[in-house]
Design brief:
single chain; 85 residues; 5 helices; 74% helix
Amino acid sequence: LYGFATPQERDLFRLLVNHVSGIGPKTALDVLSGVSVTSFKAAVVAGDTKSLGQIKGIGKKTAERILVELKDKVGVAAALLQLLI
């Protein structure tokens, strides 16, 4: 059983667990603890493996895998979010 402060955190958790191979619940929770949802999405859209790699449990290869597997999914959501703000 997992609890989240916001629906955006829950959605990011599900996205990581369901769409990135090699990331399980523990690593997804580490991501949520290490960076805000907005910062994470911005890093993915920008292709910033360095900032993703600094999150506990995320190494260089996992950061690259996150970019490859989530670029399309997060990019659209982040672009829409910027339009709303």
